[in-house]
Fold these 4 entries.
Entry 1:
Amino acid sequence: MLIPDWYARVRNVIGPAAMLSVVLAAISVGFFLWSTDNLDLGIAGLAGVWIISFIAASSIIVPVPGLAAVCVAASPGVGLNPLVIGVVAGSAEALGEMTGYIAGASGRGLLRRNRFYPRLRLLMSRWGGVLLFIGAAVPNPLFDVIGLLAGSVSYPIRKFLPIVFVGKAIKSSAIAYGCLYGVGIVGWVVDAA
């Protein structure tokens, strides 16, 4: 059965618009809670980690301490499971990175004017999955550029989200475990002194 032409056009507009609406609503709620000091990890727990991680990944211009939230949540005082923290933060960051992806998709014409665009497009078409995974698995501020590039070359979202999720979950879990055991080692050294 053929899909009517009008349905395909509506679907291509409503899907991204709905995704952008959900992202903007979550950013607004999270930013409001954060700016009014109503987002305390001790009280909010994993939901607070998710919101802060989502805002941190979504904001391209405003620096938000997403990794600090992961570290605080894993500290012995809060006592959340570092692996669960990593998965929760990874899911939030993967969804938050959609802002860069959408910006790249909508600004495709601008990016094509860049003289490096043909090389970057070729790089993303050949090594997109590896580039996304490595970029997501290590803490770096340049992942927004990788997300913009992925959106500008129409890298499939069905591949983008799982790859970024796994990479971000690995990164966040490693940071959570590092903070948990790092605080324990520092406490042990201080107690021994």
Note: DSSP finds ten helices and no strands in the chain.
Entry 2:
Amino acid sequence: MQYTRISGLAAAIILFLLIAVSCALADVDAGTNGNITSAAEEPVSTEIPDNLPAAGYEGYAFTVMTYSPGTYYIEEQTGDIVNDAIYTRNMRVEERFAVEIGVNTQPGILELDKAAASSVLSGEDAYDIIIPHQIQSGPGFINQHIITDWNDIPYIDTEKPWWNQSINETINILGKQFYIAGSITVPSPFCLFFNKQYVDDFNLDDIYTTVNEGRWTLDYMTGIAHTISSDIDGDGKFTVNDRYGMSFNNDNQTLNFMYGCNQLSVVINEEGYPDINVSNDKMLTIINKVYDLIYNDNTTWYTTYATSSEAIDMFRAGNVFLLGSAVSNAITMRDAEVNFGIIPYPKFEEEQQDYHTHVDAWNGMLCVPVTAGDLERTGIITEAMAAYTYKIVTPAYYEVALTSKYLRDEESVEMLDYIFDGILYDFGYIFDSWKGTTWTLPNLMTQKSTDFSSYFAAREKGILDHYRQLYESVLEYDG
């Protein structure tokens, strides 16, 4: 298939997948399970069956619409582990079910929205699945009635480990599941990088032990960050040349403190309708704690989304202890002289059971256009792709590319379990359409404000009307 030009961020994601791989060669087992064995000959267990029936589709062109094609289609093997794992996954699916997997690549999220709507509303059966931007497309595809309920698609087993369990629970609308996500989208969750030298210089407790013991909380982290900041050049000003306890941007990296505290912006009530979940004491506490982290004692070098690279440069130079980031950004640290580790975002309090995080909206979700002609075929091929991703691609990405090449110690590898296992999907994040309540924390921090009451009062009616329209659209699916 022909590719069109892709967006810069999508290209960066693809680039990561393609070059995050030239490590000690791993051998993809040609057996049924698709195991990957590393150079150390440690097999990854992939014995979970997909329970799919025997089927053949006579060379049918199974087409994925996306703006990130390299995750779903690789034209040829190159010797790179992740690249070749994706190729092998597709080959297994193609051979098993007699299909040909291809992509229709859109140059960006707006173009994808327009192309998907145009195709479906004109009645074309052109695409089997669509991978849109979470926020841009989330409510719009439902309001336009262009996607179908995954519950109506046979052979999709969302309880299998290759599907994210959070999204199954948190974005279900009146029993309908319009989007799913999991291994197939190769998620890159938000995390923190830390400079190990600071642990020795400031005689800190071992960070990994603190995380493992469940003591890595927002208060604990802030206390450390406050002690590290210093006007090291003595000019009476805090600039890029000084030392900071932390740096992160005013976008998703700020928002992720809310998710790290296991705080969703919207929860579904017993009647199945959304309740805004930011007007409570816990959220107010998070707002005040993050404000303290950013604006008291010059603890944080706070950047915009556009200037995030500035924080990375400062971390690489050794001027920042903790850096808000995402797992895939380990690639940018590969040649950094600073000795770094990777850890999850902090919990709200020690009593919180797990560490949590989320993935950027660019990671996408899976949906099925209502014009897809054979839902049984769609279910079988999609489930097979997801299962083989879990068995073939994930080990290459996680066990080989990340752990062997970009992370520098075994403890960081252990931290990946906390991070990936803690991925949350929030109803508000996906369906909010940037209306404001989900983005309460980053928006208030950008305004240098803790005045939640005024902020919320100005937005409450608008977001409730927005959700009301969404639910009316869902009810219209049943006529």
Note: Residues 8-187+361-406 form a domain with the D-Maltodextrin-Binding Protein; domain 2 fold (CATH 3.40.190.10).
Entry 3:
Amino acid sequence: MIEQYVSKSISCSCGKTHISRVEKIEIAENVIEHEMIAFLKTKNYKKITVVCDKNTYRVAADRVCKALSENSISFKLHKFHEDNVLPNEYFIGNLVMAMPLDSDLILAVGSGTINDICRYVSAVSGKPFCTVGTAPSMDGYIANGSALIHNNMKLNYVTHAPTAVFLDPLILSRAPGDMIASGVGDLLGKISCLADWRMSAIVNGEWHCSFVSGLVDTAIQKVTACIDKIASEDSNAIADLIEALLISGVCMDIADNSRPASGCEHHMSHFLEMRYLLEGRKPVFHGTKVGINTVIALKAYEYAAKLTPDFDKIKKAPRKPYEKCEKEIRTAFLNASDEILELEKKSGKNNPENLKTRLEATEVSWHQIKSLAEQVEKSVHVYNKCTCTSQ
């Protein structure tokens, strides 16, 4: 299914022309030795920087290096040796300083963090990058943005999608169970994400595309249909999981933003990641945090489905003073609070006029919002079944 959206231009009823910039996606056994090498030769890449960590070197990068050597393709291996590689200034700078200036391709071997680092370095250096995936742990293989940590704050940076992605189902099926569960959590987070996107279209007038959201929903159905087999690490089911994650990634690419795949569950995930980092705690997989926060998001929609708001009373209610909001932000975000407060001022989403505009739109459209919340409420039992099975 994924092939029909790769390197294509789609004229859509939403008024946009959706363009996928990924040239090739290959999911096959021994993809490193065959499809990857064939693609690199076709593109005539001559000096490649292979990027991995000590775990992904053992899983796949050693095979990548061997295949490149056997085909007389020049490369330099850059392996991060730290136990916890983070997408922050240190590791990005580490790669930039180690990468030869005459490299003509960055080849990322890994999953989320390695890809975010390589995607950003690729964008700022003007060098293309390709990916050899090692785990079905997240949907960012084809994303056109990087989730990076800067000054202790998790931010999304606009970058670009890879030129090509190569995935071996056998390698993916051997990934640790918690990484596979992370992929399921990231994918099921799209249930609340799609609702958030539609909610913003209703309340804020944000652009919304039924075609793109329909594709993401197809990805959700693809995973829920084989959740038992994914839990048993069946390689065919893992291939279905990775294709569903790739569909989500393609949707971000053709929508040209992360909206189809990232909602409030991702914002809460980023908050947890920042707190763990600031407190010196061991990181938790992205999709695991997304899955946990999806529970919170779905509970909020369940609550909204049963509400009958008194808008006159809400309009008269006193607003929380800015000083109290600032104190709560500083308590929650610790050393990252200055950057958060600056972002809040820049966005202006909580100034009185913007709050008033959103409240008025909510009142006018409450029947649509309530209907949306009721639809999401029906999805909760599906989410519960899948998360219980994938644990």
Note: The longest strand covers residues 47-53.
Entry 4:
Amino acid sequence: MQVGAMKEARVLLPVDFSVGMKAEFDREITPEDVRIFSDLSGDHNPLHNDEAYAAGTNYGARIVHGAFQVGLASTMAGMYVPGRSAVVGSFQCRFPAPLIYPCRVRVHGEVTNWNPGTLTGTLRVRVVELSRSVLTAEIHVGFGLHEERTAADAGAHEQVVRDSGKPVVVVTGAAGGLGQHLTSALASQYHVVGIARSIPTIQAGIGDAGGPEWVRADLIESDWEAALDRQLAGRPVYGFVHAAWPGIAQGGLLDSELDSVAKQVDFGSQVTIRVARFLRSHSGESARLVILGTTAATLSPVLNMAPYSLGKAVLEHAVRLLAPELARKNITVNLVAPSFIPVGMNASKTSRIVLSAAAKVPMGRLGSPDDVAAAVEFLLSPGAGFISGQCLPLTGGEL
């Protein structure tokens, strides 16, 4: 099945990319092409292959598979733009008109988005049937760039990446009090990759035998996606547990510095969106995004931590809005909202504050890291496959 005239993929470097970069190629589509595609894909629907059957439909003739045209978009990405370094992360497609064959098409490609910090972008591909100048497909291709490694690089790479055979789960804030507990609790079922700004006791890369891999990165900065992508080295991500937060901002909204408020709100919105985008482009057939929130957001906002409560409330709303978008890729997103837990940012609280918080809980005790880990493990499990866009409060019955 001949795919255009280009025999070797075009070689482009990251510095060569820019929004507006274009390429195109023409392609003849024959009955033999469609027959071979039907055999390869297993899609032998008579609308594509049976001339007599197709003539009796509203189309009046056999039409090319939509997936065949997606294949042309893959040709554009892998051979023309981005070319040899391309790795496709997603396809979003629409087919405004049927493509009747035999025919000749022109395939246009244009880079519509490019992020040099993460080496990711979007390619818009348009398939036009030339005899009628009809647009038959518009396909948006999310892409990244893979790296070429020398033999020396390969040796070093083996020391950084392990494949345990378990599904990969990324944990942000993995060096924090709650993050460390989650990283440890998930390690029995998943291969954990931890992200943290500071990893004082181990080196970035591989930890102790059986322990997690580590990526030293700050989620507020622009380069954490690239660092994580390098560490994953092409492995799909099954789960992403987002437990990081940039500290608690004290004070009310009227007296707090606006930069402090913006940092909390941006972390709840923009960083969360970046996490979701990363998972969407690096997941397999299905995936889970679990985000750590707090009851001190919309359930019980705290006036003397108003910027923090506001940022966490934004986080909750982001989860609800992301759910229907991520569902298209079979990705669930949910939020676990524990009440007061005396670890991490709360570890320095006085015993009086801890006892006072416990007295408010009808179950007679505070929540624990084990309670949070159990909720996270459930939301990562197959049993939670139809739960998405939800906030799960862990309150022990406290109103």
Note: The chain has two domains: 14-145, 162-394.
